[in-house]
Write a structure and sequence with these properties.
This protein is 20% helix and 26% strand. By secondary structure, it is of the alpha+beta class. It has one domain (27-104). The strands form 2 sheets. Strands 1-6-5-4 form a 4-stranded antiparallel beta sheet. The protein has a two-stranded antiparallel sheet with strand order 2-3. The radius of gyration is 17 Å and the shape is elongated. 10% of the residues are buried. The mean pLDDT is 83.
Length: 105
């Protein structure tokens, strides 16, 4: 699906944006955001499993990394007070901004 999106949708967006005026070539960051993941993350603290803190980013082990232009990561967006933390999955499929992965995360 991701490859199809990049081949069709992202290329169409780039083409449309570039057609606004001659010489207009903005930088584009195209990210897919999935809030409905079934993944749950836990952190071990003093021998107990607890929810990770807000802002926790998982960018290795569970994700694909293909350089600075295409990568994905999970981020804990808020403090979970009931049940388990639900991370949000961010999948950067196109990045022509020059902004580094660590800065985006």
């Amino acid at each position: 699906m991701e490859r199809k999106l990049k081949e069709v949708e992202v290329e169409e967006v780039i083409s449309t944006v570039n057609s606004y005026s001659q010489g207009y070539n903005p930088r584009i960051l195209y990210t897919l955001v999935d809030k409905n993941t079934s993944l749950r993350l836990f952190e071990k603290e003093n021998g107990e499993c607890v929810n990770p803190a807000p802002g926790t980013c998982v960018d290795s082990g569970l994700v694909e990394v293909a350089g600075e232009e295409k990568f994905d990561f999970f981020l804990i967006p808020h403090k979970a007070t009931v049940a388990t933390a639900r991370p949000v999955h961010y999948n950067v499929i196109y990045n022509s901004t020059g902004v580094k992965k660590k800065d985006i995360e």
